[in-house]
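User: Hi! I'm working on a homework problem where we have to compare a predicted structure to a textbook description. Could you give me the structure for the chain below?
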Amino acid sequence: MTRTITQLFDLKGKTALITGGSRGLGLQMAHALGEAGARVLVSSRKAEDLESATAELQAAGIDARWFAADCSKEEDIHKLADESLQRLGDIDILVNNAGAAWGAPAEDHPVEAWDKVMNLNVRSYFVLSQVVARRSMIARKHGRIINTASIAGLGGNPSGMNTIAYNTSKGAVINFTRALAAEWGKYGITVNAICPGFFPSKMTAGTLKAMGEEKLAAHAPLRRLGDDEDLKGLTVLYASDAGKHITGQWLAVDGGVSVITGG
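Assistant: Happy to help. Predicted structure tokens:
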């Protein structure tokens, strides 16, 4: 029998692992998945941030737990996978969201900073996806992988924003998403990306201070920045059976900025 829309979006009985989940976009996505019924485990580097985030999720009635790990370190990725599988059982939904940025003109950009950004923003997504798929998704022929990209991965930046490593890494995430979806469709695993525009967060605080909220919002046709609700709908669509026939796709959640810039 054809399911109702409520049934298609229901994540009860599902489990989700969210990296970079202690604040900002990752925490918003954790809320979305938990509110739809999933059990969630959030991860980031700092235990105190994770404790606060988990308390917030639990106060909202979500079955949440945490584990501190630095996804720039391969040994930590394996520990995170071990802990998640032990505490959640099979992982149904993996959200690759941990990320870093570095601001510098291309001619002065430190190579070590380039490597740091690429390691966390691209390599960690591959390693964690591989580990989780091998140990939980492939044999069951089921899984949902959601990668956080960015509209920065669709092109360059306005004058004064010098984040070439970040832009390059997010462009890589978009094509990583497409290539992985093509390979793993035979296993019943969907792989999709979200490309946020400008959302106020700790990572974007410097840009917000330098350029001002009004000026940044003025670049968007909707004349607003992203808020604490704007990623929720797409996250649950990608994670649930409502999106079971969507894979290898990216969607910008940016107030229309990419419509103007041609992304």
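For your comparison, note the following. Residues 111-137 form the longest helix (27 residues). Residues 5-256 form a domain with the Rossmann fold fold (CATH 3.40.50.720). Good luck with the assignment!
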